[in-house]
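Thread amino acids onto this structure.
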């Protein structure tokens, strides 16, 4: 699930969080869901919390891409260098043994 923060300028009301699907409870009816969650003005605790969460999520996504890229590079390198040792290298690398 991906989120992003929208800034809206209606008399400087603040920021809202937007999701791809309706997951946030509505302010007027908790049984209904909406795509948006009001965060308040810049610097409010809800706004700061949302920015920190999005930053952490982006870091996690980037680290996962780096790990995937390094794994693919390692496996490609090991396969080219010594195909007969590939099962041993793969087992040791992927299981940290």
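Threaded sequence (97 positions):
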């Amino acid at each position: 699930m991906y989120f992003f923060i929208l800034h809206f300028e209606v008399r400087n009301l603040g920021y809202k969080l937007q999701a791809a699907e309706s997951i946030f409870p509505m302010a007027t009816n908790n049984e209904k869901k909406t795509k948006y969650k009001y965060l308040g003005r810049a610097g409010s605790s809800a706004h700061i919390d949302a920015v920190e969460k999005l930053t952490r999520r982006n870091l996690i996504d980037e680290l996962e891409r780096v790990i995937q890229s390094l794994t693919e590079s390692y496996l490609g390198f090991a396969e080219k260098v010594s195909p007969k040792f590939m099962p041993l290298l793969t087992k040791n690398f992927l299981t940290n043994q």
